[in-house]
Structure formats: C-alpha cells, structure tokens
Amino acid sequence: MDENIDKTKCLIIGSGPAGYTSAIYASRAFLKPILYQGLQVGGQLTITTRVENLPGYPEGEEGSKIMKNIEAQAKRFGTDIRFGRIIEVDFSSRPFKVKADDGKIIIADTVIIATGASARWLDIESGKKFYGSGVSTCAVCDGFFYKNKDVAVVGGGDTAAEESTYLAKLCNKVYLIHRRNEMRASKIMQSRVFNCKNIVPVFEYIVDEIIGDDKGVTALKIKSVKNNDTRILNVDGVFIAIGHVPNTSIFKGQIDMDDKGYIITKPGTSQTSVEGVFAAGDVQDKSYRQAVTAMGSGCIAAIDAERFLALTSS
C-alpha cells in the first residue's frame, strides 16, 4: 500500500470533549480509530480557565488539564492521535476518502465529525486580552463566578437574551449592550429580558474597549453609534453573545446542514444524511454547547459507528 494512505474503521475529526470521548469509546470497541486534532487541540475548553460544572471535579479544574487527561485516556486505549487538520473530504461512497494537511489520505469505513463551533468575538484587542479573566462566551459555564456582581452582555439576539436572563438570577446588575435600537431576539425572549428588573438595556452602543488590570476586567467603555459619545460601565465581567460559527466549511455539499451551517442529525442519533458519517458535539448542537453534553454526544457517535459497522459487515 502507498505509505501516504492509511485505512481505518473509524476516523474522528476534532479533539474537543466530543472527539476525545468518541475516541475512548471507539478504541474500547476495537475500532482502532485515527483522530486528527485540528488547529485548536482540545477544543474551546482549553481556553477556559476554570471549569466547575463538569461532574467529577468537586473543586473545579483548569480546562486545558481536563482535556489533557481525556486525551491521555484516549491514547491509553489505543487511539492513533495525530496533530493536524483535515482539509478535504469525499463522502460520495464508502469507504470514505479524506485528505489531511500532512498529505496523508485516510480511507475510513466510518467518520465521526467533532469539529465544534467557534464563538464570534468582538473585533477589539482588549477582548482577547481578558478572555478567561473577565471575558466569557458562556454564562452557564462562568456566571457563578459573578454572583452578586455587575456584568455586561453584548448582543441582541436570542443568545444574548438567554445569557442576560440567566445572569440576572445570579448577578446584581446586567447591562445588555446592543448596537441597534431594538433587539433581534424573538418576542418571547425580549419580554423575558424587559421583565427582569436588574437587566439594564443599553441600546445603540458598541463596545469600544474592555478595561482591566492584572486581576481581570474592571470596566467597559462603550460608544454611541449615533454621535460617538462614550460611557464607562463599572463591571466585573463581560459576556460576548453575538453567536457561534460551526466549523463545517469543508463538509459543505457533502452532508446536510441547516442555514447556519450546523450539521443536521437524525433525532435521537448522531447519524448525518450520509450513512456511516456521524456528528457529535457543538458542530451539531446549537442549543446547549456544554462540555458534558458534547461528551455524551461523542459517546453516542462512537456507539452508533460501532453498530453501523456491525450491521454492514454482517
């Protein structure tokens, strides 16, 4: 065989909680999976400082350490973990043909897509500077750290409304910053926002700068879209809620997706529109986006792949 061609019963694309969990289950099922980690090894959890809502960590743990532990577990059971990314796929017939950026061609009987979704960020340098130190994209993940404090949420859609109402239960005050003069969220979500006494809408403003020190965020500088006047809001945290982008561009035209690029799976399964191709984690989940739900879907994908192989090989 050509040394640039590898064959596997199961190829896993992505190395977040979903990818590594599917690798653990696939390895234990003797599928001898190959996993390509992608550019962000370990997924979004690696850029989360402390994770306190994952079962099994009573004192919390650094996101990067959690992912290193899961990676080590996948390796222990025999997963062939490779650094690099998949750049081209052909799902037109089985076995599937996939090309990696190292030049390798992978011939796979099944494929599990676990490439995740990336949060949209504000195009300001200070937003990146304080990520994990006062700037977050997940209220459910990090809201607890701001109990009885003042925070800001940036956005105007359903995600921003959900984040704001969740934080309103924990925080003293929630500023909702939106560049338009009205929200884009659904009417029901808007009513929930406006019925929360401690949510303060600040419309027709954009974020100009996130201010802080070596301990984290201390304030938010916002600018009017009408006259460029600026205001300073004293806050301890800023939650960016302007949406997520699923990492699915290389699968376009190969499998069914919704209008936002999320992979569509059959209800109750990880099965995509192509038999033998499965999807797990945030790449197909636009509702929950939690590490624990991604892990669960990774387990489901591996079991679905194992059962598919058993049926098709008999």
CATH superfamily of the largest domain: FAD/NAD(P)-binding domain
Shape: elongated
Biggest sheet layout: 7 strands, mixed
Roughly what fraction of the amino acids lie in strands? 25-35%
Residue share in helices? 10-25%
The CATH topology of the largest domain is FAD/NAD(P)-binding domain
The figure for the number of domains is 2
Summed over residues and divided by their number, the pLDDT gives a mean of 92
Order of helices and strands: EHEEEHEEEEEHEHEHEHEEEEEEEH
The top level CATH class name of the largest domain: Alpha Beta
Distance between the termini: 26 Å
Structure description:
There is one protein chain. The protein is α/β, with parallel strands linked by helices. The protein has two domains: 5-118 and 244-313, FAD/NAD(P)-binding domain (3-Layer(bba) Sandwich), CATH 3.50.50; 121-240, FAD/NAD(P)-binding domain, CATH 3.50.50. It has helices at 17-28, 63-76, 125-129, 139-142, 158-168, 187-194, 291-313; strands at 5-13, 34-36, 50-51, 61-62, 80-82, 86-90, 96-100, 105-113, 117-119, 135-136, 150-154, 173-178, 199-203, 205-213, 216-224, 230-233, 237-240, 244-246, 277-279. The strands form five sheets. Strands 1, 2, 5, 6, 7, 8 and 19 form a seven-stranded mixed sheet that branches. β6 and β7 (96-100) form a beta hairpin. The relative contact order is 0.18. The model has no long low-confidence stretch (mean pLDDT 92).
